[in-house]
Amino acid sequence: MDTHATREHTPLELERDVVVVGAGPAGLMAARRLARAGRSVAVLEARDRVGGRTWSDTVDGAWLEIGGQWVSPDQTELLGLLDELGKETYPRYRDGESVYVGADGTRTRYTGDRFPVGETTAAEMERLIEILDGLVAEIGVREPWAHPLARELDTISFHHWLRSQSDDAEACDNIGLFIAGGMLTKPAHAFSALQAVLMAASAGSFSHLVDEDFILDRRVVGGMQSVSLAMAAELGDDVHLSTPVRTVRRDDEGVTVVSDRVVVRARRVVMAVPPNLYSRVSFEPPLPRRQHQLHQHLSLGLVIKVHAVYPTPFWREDGLSGTCFGAGRLVQEVYDNTNHGDTRGTLVGFVSDEKADAMFRLSADERRAAILAGIAEYLGDAALEPEVYFESDWGSEEWTRGAYAASFDLGGLHRYGADQAAPVGPIHWACSDLAAEGYQHVDGALRSGRAVAETLLAELGEPAAARAA
């Protein structure tokens, strides 16, 4: 794998069938499938590592999954690849009671997959889940913009739609948590009910999203980034790191992709980066107006993923699973994130959207104190003194600039959704942000990468000497 960060001589010039921009799971899957079919590829990655929004690293002696990490039973593309690569998974720790902090600040220990709320609120939550499950079943995940209800649901925010369905504020806030804070990491007033339905549909149902034992089921031994590392190892020197692409020039014969270090002449290019990064590249000639417009209606959310490592998983001694929820709290979700075979205990918590804005106005010490106090609301004062504390802030990462994935603003999905993955001549698009099933997850990235590779093989033809995929 080419890892040299700079070169003072003339950029390396390559000719390939396909050049892939981005070495995350989508780009690497596309390149892997193409290479196995006998097509020549080059992968250009701006970062000094592969993996995109998956990243495992050691911080102050603690091994942390800084990016995406969980595997759920519906993620069959990812599960199949894990089997193929010989990688093992292990379950998230979930024995014992969970903790819920209600709208009035009351802390309650509970078991099961439903919050311990009052009878009326519980009934309202069940009713809202049933309505959303019905919409998911009716609208589906592939073309939500084509449904007769698309415009109606896309021009009302998820916040206001929930309140049009119920006058129980706690029920609405709790349901909103699973989409707004837990997935899109935007305030529920910033995205549409249709976008919420798509998010739920991508996981199979809204019921799946409210079941943390389903959606946050397992982790990969060795970390999720190891999946990308394994795919990149197969591609070897065809992966070029520290190589941000500056220009994509297209003509009747294909494309020329220009970076500071490598220039690739190819028949096709796959842009396998988040949509908010498309504007970092100069396209010559410019992309069509439709693409320019739709890209301006897509944006990533904001979340602080907080890692706190303790000498032992102290919460387990108190009969707690480490799973905690509070829609109105600073830290809305907490989970036991202890690593496979580790004697220390690790908690992971999430501070999303406007709450994250407020935290970033504080100094680092003030932010740490506030967030740890938020975790201690659930698990007690022992949470205040971790051995290692680290904040994953993807919003400040140069080649990501947000988390977890891009979503449309109000009205954007029904207006532009059908066009978001449409090729522009030799330019194709692939990323988890554009996926149907597995949207904003590694599974969706892999599906997107495989799909674009199959499209390109159909266009270019699969060589007779292709290796078995």
Automatic annotation (TrEMBL):
InterPro entries: Amino_oxidase, FAD/NAD-bd_sf, Flavin_amine_oxidase, Flavin_MAO
Domain Amine oxidase: 26-456
Coiled-coil ranges per UniProt: none
Molecular functions (GO terms): oxidoreductase activity
SUPFAM superfamilies (UniProt xref): FAD-linked reductases, C-terminal domain, FAD/NAD(P)-binding domain
Binding locations of substrate: 350
Parts of the chain that traverse the membrane: none
Keyword Repressor found: no
Cofactor annotation: FAD
Domain of life: Bacteria
Pfam family, one: Amino_oxidase
Keywords: Oxidoreductase
Keyword Cytoplasm: no
Residues that hold FAD according to the record: 45-46, 245
Entry's family note: Belongs to the flavin monoamine oxidase family.
Name of this protein: Putrescine oxidase
